[in-house]
């Protein structure tokens, strides 16, 4: 067997080339790879190529946590629940499990939205409270005084609340 990168002869058990370090492909193990043009690619030929690259016996299914992360990402990007359900069922997941994964992902997104909204309210309260307290202290001083208006935390809080509400309604309507 020869290295496809540098052409140096390799022993059969080598996985990497001893000269250049490239991975040595065992062409006999792959069998004959069909020659397909770009125009002839369809779902069946892609599935055949995937089977050659990684036979079904060696493929590992995504764990539930990874499935949930993919569904969460798809929901946040605006993919409809029905579309997700259909693609998951076509991918070999039972309809009941697919529905459970989608509901769990939606619940997790809404929980994060509520937490983000809460912290947005906290930021607004801190900014407004410090501004009011320092103004009242300055106003009560007979010689006058200085006060601080913390508009930065208030604006950041408004942003966090707005973003949380946007995601909440976006996911709720999918």
Keywords:
174 residues, mainly alpha, 2 domains, 6 helices, 61% helix, elongated
Structure report:
The chain has 174 residues and is mostly helical. The protein has six helices and no strands. Helix 3 crosses helix 5 and helix 4 (81-90) runs antiparallel to helix 5 (95-140). Residues 27-43 have low confidence and may be disordered.
In short:
With 174 residues, the chain is mostly helical.
Task: Describe the SSE topology.
Layout: H1 27-30, H2 43-53, H3 64-76, H4 81-90, H5 95-140, H6 151-172
Helix pairs in contact: 3-5, 4-5, 5-6
Rg estimate, integer Å:
29 Å
**What is the total tally of β strands?**
0
**How large a portion of the residues is in β-strands, by DSSP E?**
under 5%
Q: Number of helix segments?
A: 6
What's the story with the biggest beta sheet?
none
Query: If you average the pLDDT, what whole number results?
Result: 79
Which shape, going by the Cα principal axes?
Answer: elongated
N-end to C-end Cα span: 54 Å
SS-derived structural category: mainly alpha
Secondary-structure element order, N to C: HHHHHH
Share in helix: 55-70%
Low-pLDDT stretches: 27-43
Number of domains: 2
């Amino acid at each position: 067997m020869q290295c496809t990168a540098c052409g140096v002869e390799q022993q059969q058990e080598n996985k990497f080339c001893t000269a250049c370090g490239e991975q040595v492909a065992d062409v006999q193990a792959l069998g004959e790879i069909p020659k397909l043009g770009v125009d002839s690619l369809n779902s069946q030929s892609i599935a055949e190529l995937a089977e050659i690259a990684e036979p079904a016996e060696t493929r590992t299914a995504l764990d539930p946590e990874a499935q949930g992360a993919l569904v969460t990402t798809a929901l946040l990007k605006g993919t409809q629940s029905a579309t997700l359900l259909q693609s998951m069922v076509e991918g070999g997941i039972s309809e009941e499990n697919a529905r459970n994964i989608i509901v769990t992902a939606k619940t997790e997104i809404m929980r994060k939205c509520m937490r983000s909204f809460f912290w947005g309210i906290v930021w607004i309260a801190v900014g407004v409270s410090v501004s009011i307290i320092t103004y009242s202290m300055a106003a009560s001083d007979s010689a006058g005084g200085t006060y601080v208006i913390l508009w930065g935390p208030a604006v950041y809080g408004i942003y966090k609340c707005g973003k949380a509400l946007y995601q909440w309604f976006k996911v709720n309507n999918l």
